[in-house]
Amino acid sequence: MAMRRSAWLPFALLTAIACGGRTAPGGASPAEAQEPAPPLVAPIAVPPLAGQKVAVLPITHLLVPTALAGDSVVSPRTRGLARADSAFGEFLTARVPEVTWVLPDELRRIARRAPGMMGDPDKLGQASLRNPNLQIVPDPLRSSLRTLAALSDSRYVLVPASAVFDGVPGTVRADLVFVLADTRTGSILWRATPRGEGPDAATAYEAAILQVVPPEAAP
Questions:
Q1: What is the mean pLDDT of residues 25-52?
Q2: Domain of residue 78, CATH code
Q3: Range of the domain at 100
Q4: Is 169 inside any structural domain?
Q5: What is the predicted pLDDT for the residue at 39?
Q6: Measuring CA to CA, how many Å separate 156 from each of 35, 51, 167?
Q7: Residue-by-residue DSSP string for 63-84
Q8: What gap in Å lies between CA 35 and CA 22, rounded to an integer?
Q9: How much is the pTM?
Q10: How many angstroms separate the most distant Cα atoms in the chain?
């Protein structure tokens, strides 16, 4: 699925400023002050991955509120999952061409060619990696990722572990979780929790995934 606009949204990394529980004159209202600030996002380190193959698992954890049920980008769920995979794959291929990304559709083809050796890429349990306390990929997912990496000739796996949308038409927020894992050691090397906002789900999702790319990699 192609993104709705030819240009990606710019982004800014925001940090929270402690004010001792008080709001400065002319600042945010108490209600606004209680709204959690967007998390600080550390972009993925591209140079260590340059020239390598990196498998990209399909997303399996997608939450959409009833208010956005009419947004065809994220509803129904099966369409939303497919669109999220497609949009993220196009984003990676265009923005980080120095890495050879083995995208979900290719992983599915590899799995079909190796029945009994590799599990269904959509049913490996990768959504469990959204747990922020994990530092090592747990079994049996770890074993599955090792097999997937061997069959796709890739050591590292990029996992879109979660996509949670909130809001109403006109004001939508997307909270995502991405994880990069080393399949040899099982170590989680990188985790990002970008948040994007926009008038619709596509714009919010686009704004969020842009944050996983280092500024120098963006045109």
A1: 68
A2: 3.40.50.10610
A3: 45-217
A4: yes
A5: 55
A6: 36, 12, 34
A7: E--GGGTT-TTT-SHHHHHHHH
A8: 14
A9: 0.80
A10: 65
